[in-house]
Amino acid sequence: MNKRALAIGAAAFLLSSVVLSQRGAQAQPERDPNQVVVRIGSEAITVGEFERRITKLPRFQLATFGTTPAEIRKAFLEKVIIPEYLFAQAAKQGDVEQDIEVRGRVRDVLKSSTLRELREKGAGQTPVTEQEVRLFYESHKAQYDSPARYAIWRILVASKDEAAALIAAAKKDPTPKTWNELARTKSLDKSTNQRGGNMGFVTETGDSSDGKIKVALSIIGAVKAVKDGELVEQPVPEGSGWAVVWRRSSVPEVHRSLREEEQNIRRQIAQERVQSLQEKLLAGLRERGVRDVNPSVLDLIEISSTGQLGARGKPGRVYRKPSAGPPESTPRGLR
Predict the structure, then answer these.
(1) Parallel, antiparallel, or unpaired: how do β-strands 149-157 and 254-255 relate?
(2) Residue 300 has what pLDDT?
(3) Between 20 and 30 A from 66 (CA), which of 36, 157, 202, 334?
(4) Whole-number Å distance between alpha carbons of 183 and 176
(5) For residue 44, with 0-12 CB atoms within 10 Å meaning exposed, 13-18 middle and 19 or more buried, which class applies?
(6) DSSP secondary structure string, 182-240?
(7) Residue 327: CB partners within 8 Å, gap ≥ 6?
(8) Cβ atoms of 245 and 219 closer than 8 Å
(9) Nearest alpha-carbon partner for 170 in 178, 162, 180
(10) Domain map of the chain by residue range?
(11) pLDDT tens digits, one per residue of 55-76
(12) Segments in the chain below pLDDT 50
């Protein structure tokens, strides 16, 4: 057995309350987790704290501290625990906690710790029931059972010949820019021509996603005959007019059963529970802690179009960039 394997095997017994002597096994008194291992300034490192820290390390990392349990324990104490406490105490003595960036980092750590505790608390709540899963599935049925949909752009004109001419023009430069110009200037449908004839996503029955548009079935049939991104090469009859149609994209039909989505739904319900706990905690903390709110002072902070921050100038004051040339003589002196 090599040294690395020996260290990995020994790591499992680092803090065992029983040690073996060369003459045989000899029971030792049960360890006291409150017993002090070392004192550093005003802090004391106990057996319990040492055990908590060292047991979080993976075995392969423990092997880097030595080849025997005694070497690993000693090296971890001297190379990790003691320096960490010394640096922390030096920071306190130097008032590092008063530094604005340090305070921000501390807040971030405390926030992350609080959120982690809430997640653990949420996971420890009553398990999600089958009834909750079923109710969630039924109330979000559109996510798991929806028909195929097509994204359609359409220009409506009066005659078949005019539609054919628009198709030829669109083929010469098949870009959204050209298409939008044709739709704005030629389409008779004033409800869609300003947005390039965009009719949104439409089902095979001609219903739009928002329910505000009903598309002729003739257009649906023409769209189904081409692929995503293709222009329908022939004018399509629509009522008393003719349509030029472009199939932009599509979404396939979705049919996901409750069994297929059960685990995802359970996770989502658990996440919603955690979110509810966060909102409840924030509401209580806000009520107790937030005060002296004066958002109007934020108006003094200028945010440029490029996202640069700076103090806003005084009202009425004109700020001029310094001139690169020498002062010039004026009736009022050098300027």
Answers:
(1) unpaired
(2) 82
(3) 36
(4) 10
(5) middle
(6) HHHHH-S-TTTGGGTTEEEEEETTSBBTTSS-B--HHHHHHHHTS-TTPBPSS-EEETT
(7) 334, 335
(8) yes
(9) 178
(10) 3-93, 142-253
(11) 999 989 999 999 999 999 999 9
(12) 1, 3-27
HSE value, Cβ hemisphere, 13 Å, CA-based, for 134? 3
Does pTM surpass 0.70?
Answer: no
φ, ψ of residue 311 in degrees (nearest 5): -75, 135
Q: Is the dihedral of CA 270, 274, 280, 283 positive or negative?
A: negative
Count, residues in the chain: 335
Residue that the structure tokens 């007019």 belong to? 241
According to CATH, the topology of domain 142-253 is Chitinase A; domain 3 (3.10.50)
Terminal-residue alpha carbon distance, the chain: 87
Enumerate helices (H) and strands (E) in the chain, giving the number of each: 12, 14
Angle at the Cα of 316 (from 313 to 322), degrees rounded to 5?
Answer: 60
Q: Looking at residue 99, what is its pLDDT?
A: 86
Distance CA 221, CA 240 (A): 18
